Amino acid sequence: MKFVVKLLPGEYWYGLHSTCGRKMPVKAGMDFEDDCRIDITGNQSAPLLLSSKGRYVWCDNGFAVKLCGDVFLFEADSEIELRGGYENLRGAFRAASDAHFPGNGQLPPKNFFLKPQYNTWVELIYDQNQEDVIKYAHNILKAGLPAGILMIDDNWNRCYGDWEFRKEKFPDPAAMVRELHDLGFEVMLWTCPFISPDTANFRLLRDKGGLVREPDGEVAVRKWWNGYSAVLDMTNPVDRQWYWEQNHRLMDEYGIDGFKFDAGDSIFYRDDDKTYAPVTPNGQCRLWSEMGKDYPYNEYRASWNAAGLPLVQRLCDKSHRWDTGVVVLIPDCLSQGILGYAFNCPDMIGGGSFVDFLPGAKALDPELFVRYAQCAALLPMMQYSAAPWRVLDAEHAGYCVEAGKLHLKYAEKIYALAENAATTCEPIVRYLEYVFPGEGLEAVNDQFMLGDDLLVAPVTVKGQYQREVRLPGGKWRYVDGTVYDGGATVTVDAPISVLPHFEKVD
């Protein structure tokens, strides 16, 4: 099916992928082309484009799109919908949400929004072990950071698909979890839909008719970042029941609170896969996300058309760099929100690339680490992995503690916005255009609104200690108490100790 949409004068478009943040919004004359029929981004996506003029385009199975001058050319295998008459971006979003991904009133536990998350990946890499996990938790508290949600990352398990603790690394997992709970932490485990070949669980699922198959019926073995594995078929009740049993045994036996559901990306599936029920690669990714509804403590990185579900959605790993790391957090979080993934988490503070935090790493930049923390401070969630007390001096580590305190100051506001999102799907983190339509703010994607009355303009440039900020109409109180008239661009002081933000005062 081919479909043509002519852009209206002054019209801007948003959507498709969270990783499209820096490309958004799209307007006439831009070089823009995309194909979301198989999501290759490794992050959240949806078959949705939304317009600043109150229109939206939707297609259940995704579409290819190319902008030619002032015309969108669409191609899809199923019906493409164009709906309009909703006045502005907010109106278009609310209409699209009501029609295609309505909220059900459920949301992740409150602790996700009030407390930081701590992931053991950067500190332990593949040497996850009981002694160092406990040490990491104690050091969090010693550093003046609050207890929160602790995620034990990859390689705690015996092998992929054998979801049992490695006894040589975790001699008493139940005791470990009890101690972490006593310290005030909830505990989550990394998991994925991969099954190592030639293992007991591989043979079990193979013989029961599970796992994704090649067209000839043989079990498919797919390459991923840790090697080669079979893949769960999320349409198959055998696979789903087996996986549910593994997770709930860990919860019942050891007191695990939930799971970091990694992978599940569309790229690990193929159109010609032989599966229990007909499904596209994007459909497998969608089913992987839907499964997470059974676990209040969850985290996802890859999702397709899963807006409106009570899932924590983290941005994929960013680098410890100014130009490709912290600078994309704001536009990508804005893009997450406008796609309906309201319960969003930026990447690990400082970036998720462990090589940048190895002892003696030359690329480590304390100023960059602090700006990462500040950027996350007024986003819905904060997640640490690299330990500030190890990689930073006392001064810069102290700024991270202050960023956490700022998050706590606004935590109840953030949670109230999350409760609203549970029923309306409205973004917690909003484009300025979403809140203030028609004020010429359509292209602003390096600032964001937290709700309708808190404007945040993080610093994402090295050595920048002043910040130009676009203010909508009205009056705005800066963090230093100065009140500015809106409808203008202002320059404010932004020393490394300050996250620029304004409260609307009228």
Short description:
The chain is an alpha+beta fold and 506 residues long. It contains 14 helices and 30 strands.
Explain what you see.
- The chain is of the alpha+beta class and about 500 residues long.
- The chain contains 14 helices and 30 strands.
- Strands 18-17-13-10-9-22 form a 6-stranded parallel β-sheet.
- β4 (about 45-50) and β5 (about 55-60) form a beta hairpin.
- The longest helix is centred in the middle third of the chain and has 18 residues, at about 235-255.
Strand order of the largest sheet: 18-17-13-10-9-22
Structural class: alpha+beta
Task: Please report the total strand number as a whole number.
Answer: 30
Shape: globular
How helical, in percent, are the residues?
25-40%
Poorly predicted runs of 5 or more residues: none
Total DSSP helices = 14
Major sheet: 6 strands, parallel
Query: Gyration radius, to the nearest Å?
Result: 23 Å
Strand-residue proportion = 15-25%
Whole-number average pLDDT? 97
Whole-Å distance between the termini?
49 Å
